[in-house]
Amino acid sequence: MRDAALLCYGFAGLGLMGGSLAQAIREKVLTKGTGRIFAVDRNSWTLAGAIDAGVIDTGFQPEESRRMLEQCDVVFVCLYPKQTIEFLKKERMFFKKGSLVTDISGVKGTLDTHLDAILTGDFDFVSTHPMAGSEKEGFTHASAQIFANRNYIIVPHPKNKPENIAFLKNLMTAVGFTRMIETDAETHDAKIAFTSQLCHIIASVLVDSAEDTNITSFGGGSFEDLTRIAMINAPLWTELFLSNREKLLDRIDSFEKSLCRVKKMVEEADYASLCRLLEDIRAKRIEMGRKDKR
Amino acid sequence: MRDAALLCYGFAGLGLMGGSLAQAIREKVLTKGTGRIFAVDRNSWTLAGAIDAGVIDTGFQPEESRRMLEQCDVVFVCLYPKQTIEFLKKERMFFKKGSLVTDISGVKGTLDTHLDAILTGDFDFVSTHPMAGSEKEGFTHASAQIFANRNYIIVPHPKNKPENIAFLKNLMTAVGFTRMIETDAETHDAKIAFTSQLCHIIASVLVDSAEDTNITSFGGGSFEDLTRIAMINAPLWTELFLSNREKLLDRIDSFEKSLCRVKKMVEEADYASLCRLLEDIRAKRIEMGRKDKR
Q1: Which residues 185-204 of B have a C-beta within 8 angstroms of A?
Q2: What's the pLDDT score for residue B38?
Q3: Which pLDDT value is given to residue B160?
Q4: Which CATH number is B161's domain given?
Q5: CB atoms B191 and A282 under 8 Å
Q6: Do A83 and A58 reside in the same domain of the chain?
Q7: Which residues lie below 8 Å from residue A129, measured CB to CB, with a gap of 6+?
Q8: Are A53 and A78 in contact (CB under 8 A)?
Q9: How far apart are alpha carbons B243 and B189 in whole angstroms?
Q10: Best residue in A151, A186, A222, A268 to probe B by mutation, most B CBs within 10 Å?
Q11: Which residues lie closer than 8 Å to A139 by C-beta, 6 or more apart?
Q12: What is the structure's pLDDT at A52?
């Protein structure tokens, strides 16, 4: 396997995720070795800041991206899902021979339908979803720490080289991820509709249904914890929700049904049923936490 | 004002909240001075543990509670809401002359209707709701730290002595609370139905609607954060929900309406409306955080 400390890494998009991954690779992978980090971003102020901070070596304007790509052994496409597909289609001829290209898209179904058309050059594209983030956006809020103990999902394609998947797993372990999951696009999107998208919808709806913004003087931590992710990147999440519409709607339906059941128990002041259900839910959540620690 | 370091404190109930308050008073108020802490609890193992840990000086069995109460300058009734009312009714003749009695009940409406009958002896009862807690129960999980930067709600009664309210505010500031809110029982219960009760319902429903307990391998932190409070103390929360039924049902209704609106936007793939709504929600949540820091 190639020595990760000696490679040239390229980032297409240096926002919160690209910036955090670049920082983590700088701090945890390139401590010794001659490896370099390049980035292309439409915001030249971001590039200058990232050079100043010692995170990247060289910045490129979008129109210079080919000049960057032809030098990179590993490319992280850290753009919105639709932009990612456009970028891969447009730039696929310019990736360095033998290079490994990867992404961070939060939905995989749409990308999956384009992969046969994209995977035509002498490079390997491994689709992944690093399950980490922040309610704050942009390189300014990037942090190498957000990946600690997180899940890294890989959605392999039949054309992917096993050594590239193995390389990515090693690299991402160094970055901080502790659990590597391989799955298909369909399963990924169904699970993510629940763990990520439904949670963002619920948090947003909670804030939406608050009668005023003074409510937190009556907060005890629960409301604050549940709604932190409602400080949402609206264009990104609207795209994610609508790209995974059917699966998300399924999960909203199940949630509504369960809420309706609980509401009925409250309406009927059915102490026994409600208490038993809450006991079951508590046991289920504790079991989830236990599995999570394995 | 009386010197808090010289007083005798009594706890009726040494669970998570009673235990945490006792620890905080021990660590932050009784560092110097001759003050003591007593506690009555039905679990004699808890009392022995609290003495061993140096948190309380003496423990009392429930049948000995009068012997404790007659010595205490300040009494914290840290029981479930209904038990609190029963305790106050049963023991009100035995509080020390001039003592200050307080509670921690998460609903105030029912208690409020009993107060005229309770407030008949030569003691003052100030009803409060320390907005802090944990998803873990019992003295074993008690911690003096849970009150740091939290809200302390006081629901004053016309009979309360201003000096006792002032004393409590000072004491609770020493314990760690940073914001003191005075309100009436009606307002308290309406606000708490949203910030606390609805959040516990939502978290529980999210866990309930999960198809299996393996789902956290696809988690990125959001699901985990949103559902931590679903590790709920079922009997306590069932009582809280049902004691505040109408107000809670109102809040569930508003939440359902808002969820329905968002769902419709997703169904209709209405990018513009959904993105605009999420922008508004983001701004609302950021404003809440800003007010919270004041």
Answers
A1: 188, 191-192, 194-196, 198-204
A2: 98
A3: 94
A4: 3.40.50.720
A5: no
A6: yes
A7: A104, A105, A106, A108, A152, A153, A155, A188, A192
A8: no
A9: 10
A10: A222
A11: A14, A15, A16, A18, A19, A41, A46, A49, A50
A12: 97
State whether B291 and A179 contact (CB < 8 Å): no
User: What residue ranges of chain B have pLDDT lower than 50?
Assistant: none
Both B265 and B169 in one domain: the answer is no
Note the Cα A166 to chain centre separation in Å.
Answer: 19
Look up the CATH number of the domain holding residue A281: 1.10.3660.10
Q: Taking a contact as any Cβ pair under 8 Å apart, which residues of chain A between 147 and 186 contact chain B? A: 150-151, 153, 179, 181
Distance from the Cα of B235 to chain A's closest Cα (Å) equals 6
Interface pTM, i.e. ipTM? 0.92
**Residues B130 and B12 both lie in one domain:** yes
Residue A281's pLDDT is: 97
Min distance A66 CA to chain B CA atoms (Å): 32
Tally of domains within chain B: 2
Domain final position from A183, A206, A232: A183
pLDDT digits (tens, 9 = 90+) for A124-151: 999 999 999 888 889 999 999 999 999 9
What angle do the packed helices B16-28 and B162-175 form, to 10 degrees? 90
Domain membership of residue A196 as a residue range? 188-293
Q: Look at residue B293 in the predicted model and tell me its pLDDT.
A: 64
Would you call A216 an interface residue with chain B, using a CB distance cutoff of 8 Å? yes
Distance from CA of B194 to the nearest CA of A (A): 8
Considering only the beta carbons, identify the residue of A191, A238, A287 that sits closest to B275.
A238
